[in-house]
Amino acid sequence: MQREPDFTQLKIRQMEERCRESGLAITVQRRVIIEALSERSDHPSADQLYEAVRGRLRGISRTTVYRVLETLVGIGVVQKISNPEAKARFDADTVRHHHLYCSRCQKIQDLSDPALDTIVLPTAGLGGFAITDFSINFSGLCPACRSFQSP
Ligand SMILES: [Zn+2]
Ligand SMILES: [Zn+2]
């Protein structure tokens, strides 16, 4: 899924708004991290983001990046996406979409398909649970890994 050209600006504005609503300061760390995350669509881990912002913000620590990401998830401007790895992966796109996970190189691609948004949600076996949203993860092999595997 291609990012809108002004996606980063939109996310920065959204982050500033949500921080204000939640009484949080708009720190340069929060700004740089939301900027770095919204510029990419590869669903990086916290460590990968740390590598990306290290050069932009002298002295930023890995711990700060982890903490800022948790805050951004908490105020709903970033989502943590479920994947088969132990490591959390992050996405600046919080509008419902689905993911293709490559089980060989761990690449995560976005997938939007209107047909998936209209699936019939389960009603049995929920034990009183109320579903409010869902997203679907597909595992498989990306094109690069497929060509690597076939002779
Ligand atoms: Zn792959
Ligand atoms: Zn995504």
Automatic annotation (TrEMBL):
Q: Which residues form a coiled coil?
A: none
Question: Which of this chain's residues are annotated to bind Zn(2+)?
Answer: C102, C105, C142, C145
Q: Name one Pfam family in it.
A: FUR
Report whether Zinc shows up as a keyword of the record: yes
Q: Which SUPFAM superfamilies match?
A: Winged helix' DNA-binding domain
Query: What is its cofactor?
Result: Zn(2+)
Please name the GO terms that the record assigns under molecular function.
Answer: DNA-binding transcription factor activity; transcription cis-regulatory region binding; zinc ion binding
Q: Which InterPro entries match?
A: FUR (IPR002481), Fur_C (IPR043135), WH-like_DNA-bd_sf (IPR036388), WH_DNA-bd_sf (IPR036390)
Q: How is the cofactor bound?
A: Binds 1 zinc ion per subunit.
User: GO biological process: any one?
Assistant: regulation of secondary metabolite biosynthetic process
Keyword vocabulary terms for this entry: DNA-binding, Metal-binding, Repressor, Transcription, Transcription regulation, Zinc
Similarity field: Belongs to the Fur family.
Q: Which protein, by its recorded name, is this?
A: Fur family transcriptional regulator
